[in-house]
Amino acid sequence: MMLTRDQLKGKYSEGDALAIYQAVKATEDFVAFARIYMYDEEDSVTRNALWGLTKSTDEELSQLQLFCMNSWIFP
Questions:
Q1: Cβ neighbourhood burial of 66 (10 Å; 0-12, 13-18, 19+)
Q2: Contact indicator for 51, 12 with CB cutoff of 8 Å
């Protein structure tokens, strides 16, 4: 199940960030998650989404490398 914007709002703890990561890992679609929330209009949504991704393994993060490079160059 993909997380919703409402679930990503507010203040989060380290444990919450790990829960975000586990939810994304369950979908195995890190790129779709990043694409949806990376440029959200609400800072807390973006911050929490990206914080959750910091829990990813190097292999999981490699899925995001090309996407992020293209996003930063061509947002």
A1: exposed
A2: yes
Each of the 75 residues of the chain gets a pLDDT tens digit; together they read 679 999 999 888 999 999 999 999 999 888 889 889 988 999 999 999 999 999 999 888 888 887 777 665 555
Q: How many angstroms separate the Cα of 54 from the Cα of each of 35, 61, 72, 74? A: 15, 8, 18, 23
DSSP 57: -
Range 56-65, long-range pairs (CB < 8 A, 24+ positions): 56/21, 56/24, 56/25, 56/30, 60/25, 60/30, 61/30, 63/30, 63/31, 64/30, 64/31, 64/34
